C-alpha cells in the first residue's frame, strides 16, 4: 500500500501520464473528427503505423524532426483520403474499408521499411525529441517536471484539443461538419456539400492520427519495428465512445487511460508474483469496461456509418 | 457521375469480381516489386513456383489454407448477419489453447477419434463463448462489437502468453515459452505421407458443407441472412433478432476456435504466442474475396495461402521483402470491396 502511495506522489508518474497520453490524444481527436462528420475510421491503427514509419524514416534520412512530423501528417492525410474515397465517394462499408486500410497501411509501411532500411540485430535509432527546458518554469518543484519538461509534440497535442474543440463548437465550418454527421440531407438543403465536408474531416482526422503514430517512433521508441502501435488505435476508437464524441472529454479519457498505464508500469516493478501479462491486459480490459459503462448514455452522431448518396434516401 | 442501384445482382458479376480484384491487386503491387529492383513477372513466377512448384510446396499451401478456410468461414457467417466479428484471431488462439491444455493428458483412456472429436468440440465451445460475450454486450448495452472483439484479440493473446509461461508451460522445451504438447496419439493423421498436410483440411471442407447447408436449407440460415440484409424488415417479419444474433455468434466463434484446434492437432502439436501469422485477420479478407459465400471461401483461402507461401519462397529467391504478401492481400480486399459496389450499383452520368 505504501508503495502505491509512493508511486502516486512521484512527479515522474505524472510526467509519464502526459507522455503516454500524447499519441492517444492525437489518435482520439482524429477519430473524433472523422466520426463527428459521420465516418467511422477503423484505418486508425494502420494510419498511426504509416505516420510512425514515415516520420521516423524522414529523420533517419536526414530531415529535421519537425519536417519528419509534417511528412508523417501528409502520409496520414493521403491514407485518409483513400479511406474517404472508398467510404464517402463510393459509399462502401466503413467497417470493412477501415480494416482494409489498416491492413494496407501497416503492410505497406513494413514493406517499405524492410526495403529501404538495413536492419541488423537491433532496429536502427534516430535522435528523437528531447524534453524541453523552459527557464524558471521547468525548475519549479513537482509541476516543473510534470507540466513544463515535456517534449514539444505533447504541447502540440494539448493545443490541438483546444483547436478541435473550438472549430467544432464555435465556427460555421464546425457546425456544418457536425450537421453532416447528424443529417447530411439537411446539409445538402443548406447548399453545402456533405461529401466534401466528410472527405475533409476524414483527411484532417487522419493527419492527426498519423501525428500520434509519429510520436511513438520520434519520441517514445526512437526506432520503427512491426506492430509497434500495439492496439493504441483501437483504444482510441473506444475512447471516442467513452468521451461521447466531445474533445474535452476525449482529453480526459486519454489522460485517465495514460494514468492507469503509467501506474501499472510502475506497480509491475514493486509487485512480485503477478504475471506481467495481467498488467499488459489491463488497458484493454479497462477499455471494454469503459465502453459498457457509457454505452447506454452515449449520444452517437445520427448519421454515423451511413453512406450519403445524392438523391437516395 | 452518380450511382444507381441494380435491380438484382447477377451471378457472373459475383464470379468476375474477385478475379478482377486479384488482378488489379497484382498489377498495383507490381510497382512495389519494381521498386525493389526485381521484375514483377520474375517475382510472380517465383511465387507460383514457391506455392506449387513441388509436391512439398503444394502440401504446404494447402496446410496453410486449412485454418484460413475456417477463419474465413467464421467471418463470412458473421458478416452475413451484420455481426462484425473481428475477433477471429483471439477465438483461434482460445481454441488452440483449449485443445493443447485438454489434449495433453486429460483425454487418455478414450479412443483417439472420440477424444479428437471432444477436443474439437471443446475448442469450438471456447471460441463460441469468446464471441458470445461481445454479442451479448451489443444486445444488452449497445456496445459496438467491432471494438470489443478487436480489443479481445489482444487480451486473449496476452492470456495465451500467460498460460504458456505459467500453468501450461512445457517443462521439456528448454525454457521456450510453449505449451505442453497434445498426446501423440491424438495428432491428426497426414493426408499426404511425409508432409505437414493433415486431415484438418477435410475437417475444414466438411465445415464449409455444413455451413452451406445451414445457411441455405434451414430456418436459422434464412433468418440470419435476413438479419443481415435488412435488420428492421427482418425484425418486423418476426425474426427473433436477439436469438439469431447469438446463434450466429456461437457459429462464427466456434468455427474460428476449430481453426485453432486443427492447427494444434495438425502441424504444430503445441501452442505458442506466434502460432498464427494473422489467420484471424486474413479470414476477413478471405470472407470478402468470397463475397461472403461459404463455397467461395475455399477458393479465396487457397488464394491467400498461395500468396503467403509463395511470397516466402519468392523473398528467399529474389530479396523482395515477404511483407509484399500482406500488401497483396490488403489491396485485394480494398479492390474487392470496390468491385462488389459495381455488382450492386451501376454508374450513370
- The neighbouring-strand order within the major sheet of chain B is 1-2
- CATH architectural label of chain B: Orthogonal Bundle
Largest sheet of chain A: none
Q: Overall mean pLDDT score of chain A?
A: 92
Oligomeric state of the chains? heterodimer
Query: The CATH topology of chain B is what?
Result: ABC transporter involved in vitamin B12 uptake, BtuC
Named CATH architecture of chain A: Orthogonal Bundle
Strand content of chain B: under 5%
Largest sheet, strands/sense/barrel of chain B: 2 strands, antiparallel
Order of helices and strands of chain B: EHHHHHHHHHHHHHE
Rg of Cα set of chain B: 21 Å
Number of strands of chain B: 2
The CATH topology of chain A comes to: ABC transporter involved in vitamin B12 uptake, BtuC
Note the total helix count of chain B. Answer: 13
Strand content of chain A: under 5%
Describe the structure.
The complex is a heterodimer of chains A (313) and B (349). Chain A has 13 helices and no strands. Chain A has 313 residues and is mainly alpha-helical. Chain A starts with a helix and ends in an 18-residue tail after the last helix. In chain A, 50% of the residues are buried. Chain B has one domain: ABC transporter involved in vitamin B12 uptake, BtuC (Orthogonal Bundle), CATH 1.10.3470. Helix content of chain B is 72%, strand content 2%. Chain B has a two-stranded antiparallel sheet. The longest helix of chain B has 30 residues. The model of chain B has no long low-confidence stretch (mean pLDDT 92). Classes of the chains: A mainly alpha (313), B mainly alpha (349). At the A-B interface, helix 5, helix 11 and helix 13 of A face strand 1, helix 6, helix 11 and helix 13 of B.
Amino acid at each position: 500500500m505504501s508503495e502505491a502511495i509512493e508511486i502516486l506522489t512521484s512527479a515522474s508518474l505524472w510526467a509519464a501520464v502526459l507522455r503516454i497520453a500524447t499519441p492517444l490524444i492525437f489518435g482520439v481527436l482524429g477519430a473524433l473528427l472523422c466520426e463527428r462528420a459521420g465516418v467511422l475510421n477503423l484505418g486508425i491503427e494502420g494510419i498511426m503505423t504509416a505516420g510512425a514509419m514515415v516520420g521516423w524514416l524522414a529523420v533517419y534520412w536526414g530531415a529535421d524532426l519537425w519536417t519528419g512530423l509534417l511528412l508523417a501528417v501528409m502520409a496520414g492525410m493521403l491514407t485518409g483520403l483513400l479511406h474517404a474515397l472508398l467510404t464517402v465517394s463510393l459509399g462502401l462499408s466503413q467497417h470493412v474499408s477501415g480494416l482494409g486500410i489498416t491492413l494496407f497501411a501497416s503492410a505497406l509501411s513494413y514493406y517499405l521499411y524492410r526495403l529501404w532500411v538495413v536492419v541488423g540485430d537491433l532496429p536502427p535509432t534516430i535522435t528523437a525529441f528531447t524534453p524541453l527546458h523552459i527557464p524558471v518554469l521547468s525548475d519549479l518543484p513537482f509541476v516543473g517536471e510534470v507540466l513544463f519538461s515535456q517534449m514539444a509534440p505533447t504541447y502540440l497535442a494539448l493545443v490541438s484539443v483546444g483547436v478541435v474543440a473550438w472549430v467544432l463548437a464555435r465556427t460555421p465550418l464546425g457546425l456544418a461538419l457536425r450537421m453532416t454527421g447528424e443529417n447530411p440531407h439537411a446539409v445538402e438543403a443548406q447548399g453545402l456539400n456533405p461529401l466534401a465536408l466528410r472527405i475533409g474531416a476524414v483527411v484532417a482526422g487522419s493527419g492527426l492520427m498519423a501525428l500520434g503514430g509519429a510520436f511513438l517512433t520520434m519520441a517514445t521508441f526512437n526506432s520503427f519495428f512491426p506492430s509497434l502501435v500495439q492496439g493504441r488505435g483501437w483504444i482510441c476508437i473506444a475512447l471516442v465512445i467513452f468521451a461521447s464524441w466531445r474533445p474535452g472529454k476525449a482529453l480526459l479519457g486519454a489522460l485517465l487511460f495514460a494514468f492507469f498505464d503509467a501506474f501499472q508500469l510502475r506497480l509491475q516493478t514493486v509487485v512480485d508474483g503477478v504475471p506481467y501479462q495481467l498488467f499488459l491486459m489491463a488497458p484493454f480490459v479497462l477499455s471494454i469496461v469503459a465502453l459498457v459503462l457509457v454505452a447506454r448514455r452515449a449520444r452517437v452522431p445520427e448519421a454515423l456509418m451511413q453512406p450519403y448518396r445524392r438523391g437516395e434516401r | 457521375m452518380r450511382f444507381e442501384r441494380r435491380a438484382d445482382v447477377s451471378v457472373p458479376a459475383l464470379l468476375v469480381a474477385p478475379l478482377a480484384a486479384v488482378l488489379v491487386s497484382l498489377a498495383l503491387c507490381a510497382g512495389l516489386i519494381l521498386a525493389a529492383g526485381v521484375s514483377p513477372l520474375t517475382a510472380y513466377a517465383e511465387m507460383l513456383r514457391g506455392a506449387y512448384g513441388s509436391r512439398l510446396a503444394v502440401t504446404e499451401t494447402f496446410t496453410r489454407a486449412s485454418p484460413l478456410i475456417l477463419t474465413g468461414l467464421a467471418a463470412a457467417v458473421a458478416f452475413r448477419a451484420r455481426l462484425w466479428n473481428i475477433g477471429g484471431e483471439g477465438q483461434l488462439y482460445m481454441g488452440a489453447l483449449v485443445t493443447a491444455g485438454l489434449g495433453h493428458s486429460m483425454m487418455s483412456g478414450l479412443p483417439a477419434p472420440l477424444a479428437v472429436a471432444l477436443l474439437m468440440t471443446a475448442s469450438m465451445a471456447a471460441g463460441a463463448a469468446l464471441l458470445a460475450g461481445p454479442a451479448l454486450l451489443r444486445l444488452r448495452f449497445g456496445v459496438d462489437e467491432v471494438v470489443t472483439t478487436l480489443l479481445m484479440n489482444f487480451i486473449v493473446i496476452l492470456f495465451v502468453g500467460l498460460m504458456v509461461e505459467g500453468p501450461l508451460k512445457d517443462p521439456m522445451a528448454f525454457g521456450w515459452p510453449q505449451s505442453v504438447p497434445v498426446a501423440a496419439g491424438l495428432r491428426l493423421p497426414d493426408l499426404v505421407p511425409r508432409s505437414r498436410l493433415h486431415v484438418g483440411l477435410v475437417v475444414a471442407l466438411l465445415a464449409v458443407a455444413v455451413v452451406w447447408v445451414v445457411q441455405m436449407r434451414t430456418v436459422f440460415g434464412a433468418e440470419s441472412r435476413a438479419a443481415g440484409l435488412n435488420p428492421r424488415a427482418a425484425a418486423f417479419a418476426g425474426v427473433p433478432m436477439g436469438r439469431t444474433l447469438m446463434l450466429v455468434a456461437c457459429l462464427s466463434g466456434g468455427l474460428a476456435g476449430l481453426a485453432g484446434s486443427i492447427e494444434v492437432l495438425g502441424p504444430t502439436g503445441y501452442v505458442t504466442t506466434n502460432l498464427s501469422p494473422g489467420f484471424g485477420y486474413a479470414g476477413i479478407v478471405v470472407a470478402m474475396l468470397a463475397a461472403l459465400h461459404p463455397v467461395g471461401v475455399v477458393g479465396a483461402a487457397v488464394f491467400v495461402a498461395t500468396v503467403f507461401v509463395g511470397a516466402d519462397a519468392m523473398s528467399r529467391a529474389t530479396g523482395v521483402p515477404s511483407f509484399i504478401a500482406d500488401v497483396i492481400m490488403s489491396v485485394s480486399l480494398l479492390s474487392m470491396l470496390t468491385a462488389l459496389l459495381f455488382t450492386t450499383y451501376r454508374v450513370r452520368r
